[in-house]
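Before relying on records like the one below, remember that each one covers exactly one chain. Contacts with other chains, cofactors or solvent are not represented anywhere in the record.
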Amino acid sequence: MMKNGYNPALLRLELLAQGIKVDPEFNQQLGTGLKEPLWTRTGPTSTGIDLMLEKGMYCSPAIEGERFPYHYKNSPFLLGVDDSGQGVIKKNGETIQKVKPFPRPSFYGKKTSSGNLMEKIGVVTGDFLAIAIDNRCWFWGYYREDELINYKERQCKFCGIGLSMKRDELYRKSKEDILEVVGAAVEGGDAKHIGINAGTMSPPGRGHEEYAEIVSAIKDRYDVWIRLSICPPEKEKYIDTLYDAGADQIGYDIEVYDPRKYEYICPGKLHEVDRDVPHQHFFRMLEYAAKRGGPNKAYSILVTGLESRETTVQGIEELCKRGVVPRMGIFRPIPGTHLEKHPTPNPGYLVYIYRKLRELTMKYGVDSGCSGCGRTFVGTKEYDGVNPIMPEITDEDLEIAKVDINQPDASEIS
């Protein structure tokens, strides 16, 4: 029996907070007909199973199991199939919503001309192809001519980018391989746009020239929208280089707004990018990117669940005031990182942030982000983003789901 009236926008936040278990019958289809989760992303919002909820809402909850040994064990949610073969989500044994899994991308299992598996170059997440061009990071001791003995003291506490070097993902992708995979994904209808990132590179450009070369090469061949995530450069002229190459959106992620927690969680960014003044350089570059690119062409991620709801909302408003899209990633602990055992945010906390994000983006006329890109983010939209406004989550919705918006949240770092 299907429970009627369960708001999919609210269900997303519950799933992203609490994860999901997978029925063995459903699990057998992953990696064959259905797209399997691949461990190739490194940030705090990565690695889950991509699903389409009702009203066209993307969601990628973490799967309870070995990848997340300390969390999600008590998830009330189960992904399975009903008697007709329809994918469904159950909560505490009761079916609450139909769900559509994603087919396995057509290029998975194929190889590039150089012999590399294509899914080791780029993976489809949500509705976009995600490519990390290089998993080396300045804050992990790479690119430096000087020897940074205590480089671990500079790493972002939530990030596992350097750990990817120990897995089987290629830590460095060639331009030729990237172009082949982009072509396979776009021409095969597997991705609508491209997201490109890397570890922090060396100053002064922080990789802007290299990104620009790749963006230009992709744009020369394919009419596709490209979003970038990169560390801000030392000078504005490097931002011009990216836009001139054809970049559609540029992201400089401040991660944490509270100054004290920013110093603890992102020490390298504070000391080496912001020169010990929290966010001053990030905001300078974000403001320039927003003005140079135009409306909704610059964004910044805040990792929701690492600071108080009050300072999180302050961060959202500061970004909105500058014309910057606030992308509210939801903290997901990566094994092997400093915060691998840190609690995940609860659903009530996420609903509070969701409502404030909706209110502030509407107030300042700033977008809340692409729904497909935001499969692990607070914000969402209906029907694949056709409706530009985030749907409302009402008190009645909370009552149906038994979610308490005032529940204290253990994920906030004291």
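The chain has two domains: 8-101, 118-401.
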